[in-house]
Amino acid sequence: MENLVVTFIGLTAVAIVVQVCVLGGILVSVKKLAFSVERLRAEMEKKIDPALTELRDVLADAKAILGNLQTAAGNFAGISETVRSQVERVNAVIEDTTDRARDQIARADEVVTNAIEKLEATSAVVQQNVLAPIREVSALVRGVSGGLQFLFSGRKNQVDAVHQDEEMFI
Predict the structure, then answer these.
(1) Widest CA span of the chain, in angstroms?
(2) How far apart are CA 81 and CA 45, in angstroms?
(3) Within its chain, how far is the Cα of 105 from the centroid?
(4) Cα–Cα distance measured from residue 90 to residue 82, given in angstroms and rounded to the nearest whole number
(5) Which of 26, 36, 81, 151 lies at a 20 to 30 A Cα distance from 62?
(6) Would you give the distance in Å from CA 45 to the centre of its chain?
(7) HSE-up of 119 (CA within 13 Å, CB side)?
(8) How far apart are CA 97 and CA 103, in angstroms?
(9) How crowded is the C-beta side of 46, counted as CA atoms within 13 Å?
(10) pLDDT band of 9, cuts 50, 70, 90
(11) What value does the mean pLDDT take over residues 98-111?
(12) In this model, does residue 133 exceed pLDDT 90?
């Protein structure tokens, strides 16, 4: 049994030495891996830091632009509201002006129609009361003038002259 215990202790010692060697190899591999990871991290940091700085600058600019856009959107909304209210006012003024113009045109039409009717009535009255008597007086004056002219002219139509005129006509 003593041999067996010594063999067992020897095997245990060999197993422990193998474990220590394996653990030492793992430790060396882990240190190499840690060194590689650290070197990779340093390289990435060198490459990413400028990009991060630029990204921060771009984000700051974007934030400023967004602020300006919000201000512009607010201004645009205010302008739109002002324009809409002005358009409503202009529409109201145009409607009011159109209604008043329509009323004035109707009144002007009435005045013109009344004036034309009065002018026609006046013309008819003038025709009846002024021009008709003037025509009658004019006809009477022409008749009297023709009669006086005939009486005072002293010439008489000769039958031969009348006969000769009729022959020329035929």
Answers:
(1) 203
(2) 52
(3) 31
(4) 12
(5) 81
(6) 55
(7) 6
(8) 10
(9) 5
(10) very high
(11) 93
(12) no
User: Rounded CA gap, 52 and 95, in Å?
Assistant: 62
| CA gap 81, 87 in Å, rounded | 10
Residue 89, number of CB atoms within 10 A of its CB: 10
Sign for the CA dihedral angle at 9, 11, 14, 16 comes to negative
Identify residue 149 by its one-letter amino acid code: Q
Q: Which residue has the higher pLDDT, 15 or 46?
A: 15
| 163 has pLDDT over 80 | no
- Of residues 57 and 168, the one with the higher pLDDT is 57
- Tell me the three state secondary structure of residue 1: coil
What's CA 118's distance to the chain center, in Å?
A: 50
* Per-domain boundaries in the chain: 2-144
How many Å apart are CA 92 and CA 85, to the nearest integer?
11
Three state DSSP letters for 129-168: HHHHHHHHHHHHHHHHHHHHHHHHHCCCCCHHHHHHHHHH
Task: For residues 85 and 62, give the distance between their C-alpha atoms in angstroms, rounded to a whole number.
Answer: 34
pTM: 0.39
